[in-house]
Structure formats: structure tokens, C-alpha cells
Amino acid sequence: MPQYDFRSPRLHVTGALKPGAEITLEKSQAHYLRNVLRLKTGDGVLAFNGKDGEWQATLGDGKRPVLILEKQTRPQTEPQDLHYLFAPLKHERLDYMVQKAVEMGVSRLQPVLTRHTQVKRVNVERIRANAIEAAEQCGVLSVPEIGEPVTFARALASRKADRLLLFCDETADVKDPVAVLAGAREAPSAMLPLTMASAGRSAQPLALLIGPEGGFAEEERAALLKLTNVMRLSLGPRILRADTAAVAALALIQAVLGDWR
After folding, report:
1. Domain spanning 82-256 has what CATH number?
2. Which of 59, 101, 123, 187 is least enclosed, having the fewest CB within 10 Å?
3. Would you kindly state where each structural domain of the chain is located, as residue ranges?
4. ∠ CA 5-26-136 to the nearest 5 degrees?
């Protein structure tokens, strides 16, 4: 079998995955396979649960179809320890941002309510559904954790100091984001455990924070700059929408500090 099967449909399921196991499908999943994709009994499906890798399965028969597991096609891999903290956006733009963050390899999605955040009510279940759909479509083996919305102050207070926090700031003194990230990769860190330091800076837990459409308030920026193990990134001479900034910043982080290297 090729390294990745691009043609078979993929489903995120619950329950342990092992040879011969039968996974009962949710009503929406059964409808999708039977009525949208027009699959028949015996057709192949790929299944994953975020813990046991990816498995080849066949569609069973019955009023409530099941997936019958056959063999593992890919072993489970550990996601990069990369958290994405963001001020919530409206509807379709939030959906897009969540999907792209999953594709870019984040391990946790954390909504943060800042002073200028326009959206105060966050549908966590909608975020989770979009994250699962993105993982299914793009071959991702792990679905990110989804945090309940927290205030900006709570987000900073709960942060662990060994997690390098990168936040996008149009007022950053250093305008070259690659240079900033390269400095983070090369600089020694007394806060890193020995095993992590010996493996290289890229092994350090990472977090990216992107503010709302109105930008960070001055007191929020000041609070960030008082923290240890924090760096700010400029994303060039143009002002980017928050969802565009997410993709740009995550691409930079993965290329310089992350698993693209």
C-alpha cells in the first residue's frame, strides 16, 4: 500500500481500534457513507481515533452500519506540542481558521477573549466538528484538544513558563520573522529540561497567540512583554486578517521551529 491512501474516505471514530473490532457508526456517519458517498457493504474505509493510528476497515451491513477493522495502515504518531491561542472570529472565518490550524499541525486550540474581541460567545462543539472534519480530510492522525474560552488574563495566568509563547504584533521592533524564530531555535534556554535541550530548541513546547481584528490593547501588549520566554512576530508590511495571519504564522513556525525541518 502507498504511504498514504488519498482515495478512501476517512472517519474519526471512538473506541479502541484492533483487528476484527466492529465500530458502530453514528447516524450522521452512516448517512454520509451510504447516502452521500454511495458506499456499499464491503467497501473500504479508513478509520482513526487519535490514539491507535489509522486502520483499514470495510463497511458492514445492517440498519446501523458498522466498520469492521482489518489491519493498521499507519501507526499513531505524537503531534507536535504546538498550542494555538486565538481571539474568536465570526462563523465562516472561524471555521476556516480552525481547519487550517489543524492542517498545520496544532495540538490544542484555545479561544481567548481579549479586550477588542468582537465575538464573545463561542460554539466549542462547532470548533470540534470543524477540527474533526479537517483531520478526516487531510490524513491527520490526531484531533487537537479544544479548550473552553478563557479571558486574556486567565490565558496568561495559566501558561507554563517553559512553553515559548510567540505572539503576532505589528509593532514588533524586529520586522524579519524568520530571524526572530531562528534566534529562538539557536538560543540556549535554561528553562528547557536536559532531554529537551539535547534534542534541540524545536523540541520546546510552543504556543502561538493571534489577537482580534482590532489588535491587542496596549495593556495586553504590555502584559505579554512582561512575561519570560515570549517573542513577538511581525508578519510583514501589510496588515493581515486574523485568519490569514494564522496560516502565515503557523507556516513560519513549522518551517523554522516545527516538524517541517
Report:
1. 3.40.1280.10
2. 187
3. 10-74, 82-256
4. 30
pLDDT-based confidence at residue 197 (cuts at 50, 70, 90): very low
**Residue 153: which residues within 8 A CB-CB, separation 6 or more?**
223
Residue 60 grid cell: 458492514
Whole-structure pTM value:
0.88
Closest CA to 124 of 109, 134, 103: 109
Hey, how many other C-beta atoms are within 10 angstroms of the C-beta on 149? 19
Count of CB atoms situated within 10 Å of the CB of 136: 18
CA distance 245 to 90: 15
pLDDT band at 104 (very low <50, low <70, confident <90, very high): very high
* pLDDT recorded at residue 187: 67
- The top-level CATH class assigned to 10-74 is mainly beta
Residue type, 220: E
User: 14 with 49: CB under 8 angstroms?
Assistant: yes
